[in-house]
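Holo prediction — S-adenosyl-L-homocysteine.
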Amino acid sequence: MVEHAPKPSWIDVEKWLTETVVKPGPEHERALSTAVERGMPPIEVQPTAGKLLHLLVRMSGARRVLEIGTLAGYSTIWMAQALPEGGHLDTLEYLPEHAEIARENLAAAGLEERVTVHVGSALETLPSLEGPYDFVFIDADKQNDSNYLQWAVRLGRPGTAIVVDNAVWEGALLDPSMDETNAPGIIAALELLGRPPFDATVVQTVGGKGWDGFALALVK
Ligand code: SAH
Ligand code: DHB
Ligand code: MG
């Protein structure tokens, strides 16, 4: 290593990994660019994380996936593309305008038949769904993370895989005053994941979205 050379930044590394390893397709790029054009917050998972979700769906052999928090359908597209023939993904989104853009992006990716976008508050939609889901991705309002985990168990089965985004939140776990809206919900969810019926871990991440992480769990 050359001494005193400026350190490459996390964001530059993330970009290089995305271009070299992940190689998103035009349907992924479209979902990101329409989100920007339509004024949505840029809070999709990173491409490296989208590809991770895709691989986890494939590795777990999931046929039925539940997503809570759709936004423009970016993570939805990655996961739906991992489903086998006959598989299905249900994604829950509170804001009708987000759901509409997600539907457009899913249609452009040729996934409209494999995905159902449910509009409404997730806690109101969840009781109308029928399990068992094989894989659940939780990425909506962090205050409800614990409720969503309980629903994942209710709508899951022993062996259901769960991913919870935003599990580290710049370290706010140790200092909830950093974000009194979201940190308590994240902490409560992690405490839940430390006990039965969950078998879980958390992976910390850095990159284009700063310091964060995701929880990965199995229902025992
Ligand atoms: N999973 C997406 C990003 C989701 S952002 C991706 O990685 O591409 C979080 C989304 O959750 C937003 O679109 C927000 O409107 C939605 N949301 C927030 N509260 C919600 C609730 N109570 N029920 C359903 N969706 C909710
Ligand atoms: C926010 C939400 C997310 O799901 C995320 O991954 C990053 C940021 C937010 O609400 O700020
Ligand atoms: Mg998130």
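READOUT: The chain has a mean pLDDT of 96.
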